[in-house]
Amino acid sequence: MDQAIPISVSDGSLAEAGESVAAPEHLIHGGAAPEEIVEAARALSTQGRRDLAIETLRQGIMAHPRSPELLSQLGDLLSRAGAFEEADLYFRQALESGPKVVDAWYRQGLHLARQGIGAGARLSYEEVVRLDSQHVRGWVNLGVVLADLGEREAALSALRRAVMLDPTCAEAHSNLGILYAEAGVRAEAVEEFRRAVSLSPQSSEAHFNLGWALLGEDDVEQAESMLTASVRLDPSKVESLYALSLLHLRVGAYSRAVTELKQAIELSPEDARLHYHLGVAYNNQDAPDQAILALECAARLKPDDPRVHRLLGVAYDKKELPLRAREAYRRAAALSG
Questions:
Q1: CA dihedral sign of residues 51, 123, 161, 175
Q2: For 56-74, how does the pLDDT look when each residue is reduced to its tens digit (9 = 90+)?
């Protein structure tokens, strides 16, 4: 397989929005407690009104300047908006005001993980589980970060701890499955992915992970069922469309593969893999004109892939373009070393 299964990090979920939310000035002038202001900001954010949520928290901090909850919530929203430097300031203030506030450490871990600062996220999540050894999401995200840092055994230990604390945590099972798959422990990986699908039947990611693993086991029928479900649950998921196209290429369902690859290319037009496999599908349909267009695009996007040039040579041969075919084969041989 060309594509590694992605590890997912849990951000947690915001509180459900109520039907109406007080404006920031009404909350502050009414002497609202930090907890009320936080809930109002969460509701606004859930409604898609992030700017107003941020303003609500700013106003709240003016009234409660040392509230770790307000400070860390504002840091979280700014981080989600991509304002990382400003978010850093609020997380620093939050942890200075409340060094034992678990949620502040957890949100800082998410903030650092979003930026790819794995070592910093690890320290934050380690503090989360030190302060609260029952914090399931802390253990899950610690496991994910440790895996990204290459510490597989420690990652397995953290994720197993999460499963022990909450056997119904789909994310813990899913990420355990990923680690097992990467280690070649396939039966255990499939079992963990099955549990994740059972626990989270509306998760496109869970269905994708199981489908991808089953495809690796040549269980084509079950893999197709899982990958089809993944696409149904999230039609914009490029990896599911890609995996489904690989399955259909494998079984000779070239027209279906073409359809899926075209959908994926609309979503991710710069992905050379998609254009290459579209060329594969067209070549197998004896449609050299379309194959050449797809493969020439793949060659522009990934000029150092010998497979692309080799297959381009085949397509040129089918079109009786010997000079172009010879040059493509020569290029493929040079790139192959």
A1: positive
A2: 999 999 999 999 999 999 9
Three-class SS of residue 150? coil
Residue 281 lies in a domain: yes
24 band by pLDDT with thresholds 50, 70 and 90: low
**Dihedral-angle region of residue 298 (phi above 0 means left; psi in -120 to 50 means alpha; beta otherwise):** alpha
| Domain that includes residue 265, residue range | 250-337
Q: What global pTM score does this model have?
A: 0.84
Which of 220, 139, 179, 241 has its CA nearest to residue 6?
179
Task: Quote the Cα angle for 231-46-60, to 5°.
Answer: 155
- Report how many domains make up the chain: 1
Distance CA 45, CA 16 (A): 10
Residue 102 belongs to some domain of the structure:
no
Q: What is the CATH number of the domain that holds 257?
A: 1.25.40.10
* 137-178 tens-digit pLDDT: 999 999 999 999 999 999 999 999 999 999 999 999 999 999
Residue 268 lies in a domain: yes
Contact 313, 282 (CB under 8 A): no
CA distances from 65 to 70, 76, 181 (A): 8, 17, 47
